[in-house]
Design a protein that fits this description.
single chain, 157 residues, alpha+beta, Arc Repressor Mutant, subunit A, Alpha-Beta Plaits, 2 domains, four-stranded antiparallel β-sheet, elongated, transcription, sequence-specific DNA binding
Length: 157
């Protein structure tokens, strides 16, 4: 799909304010509402826009402990990864699961929980017990320096 400056502006604005009205969006990009809405629908239908969500404050919800967990599997045959991934997807505490290379681990998980006791339960009674998990190594986040949800939609598109 080719993106022009209007598409890039729409994507940039929506990443900052997903609740903006079509009228206001059209005004901000200097386009009339009908063509703006057509462009928006095309971006949605093509799968560039995956959905719209509310961003929540973890600490306000009592989720003050964030950890990164590197998980190593005991078998690297491709058919051993899907069962692990299915188990991980069912755990709401896991915000991200990235299959990685170069770190001596197969996956990195980003986890948020209320406290250390909950973390210990998640790690020892759920994650470490998934078939195929050989080892887990935790790193605790002291503070988040950059926490973006917006993707760069510059000229490279």
């Amino acid at each position: 799909m080719q993106f022009d400056r209007y598409d890039r502006m729409i994507l940039d604005i929506l990443q900052q304010d997903g609740r903006i009205s079509n009228q206001e969006l059209a005004e901000r990009i200097n386009l009339s509402p009908s063509p703006c809405l057509r462009r928006l629908r095309t971006l949605e239908e093509s799968g560039v826009i995956l959905g719209y969500r509310a961003l929540l404050d973890a600490k306000a919800l009592g989720l003050s402990l964030m950890a990164l967990i590197n998980v190593s599997m005991n078998n690297h045959a491709p058919h051993h990864f899907p069962p692990f991934e299915e188990n991980i997807m069912a755990m709401p505490e896991i915000l991200e699961c990235l299959q990685i290379t170069g770190q001596g681990a197969d996956y990195q998980l980003k986890v948020v929980v209320p406290d250390m006791e909950t973390y210990q339960n998640l790690l020892l009674n759920k994650i470490a017990r998934i078939e195929g998990v050989a080892s887990v190594h935790s790193t605790f986040v002291l503070r988040s320096v950059v926490n973006k949800t917006s993707l760069p939609v510059g000229e490279h598109l």
